[in-house]
Amino acid sequence: MRIALFLAFLAVAVGYAAWKGGGPERTMAAIAATMVGLDQLLHLFVPPTFASLDTGHLAIDLFGAASTVTLALFAHRFWPMCIAVLHMVPLLAHSSRILDVALHPAAYLAMQVATSWPVPAILILATWRHQRRLARGANEPCWQISSRPSIPSIASP
Question: Any transmembrane segments, and where (predicted)?
Fold first, then answer.
């Protein structure tokens, strides 16, 4: 039941972000949808196990962490940093399994799953704030724009 509730909550967040969000919100919606799709595809072939290293979820979590950190680096928003941090916690769980730290399977599961719950709420809030900025007429960029230092022209004598 909790999985269905989470998927419904995430579907609302992804749909709202895809419909009304700016570039970063839509990108996060695509990342979240991709992660859920990969998870569902994984479970078609491999049953979840939390007694040993779960390499399938490790790959999905590496994708999620790399994608959200990249988003946080390039988006002109604060919220992607929060989501990037949330995607790092499952990597700590996988690291504990790689290092063979005694970790109860329930704790391993919780570290992989629990940090997913705030993501839809943050995405909904981020999309709502984007809409508020647009309603105020604020003209803020969605992406960080790299400003290359200008090279002074060499004046001919």
Answer: 27-46, 58-86, 106-126
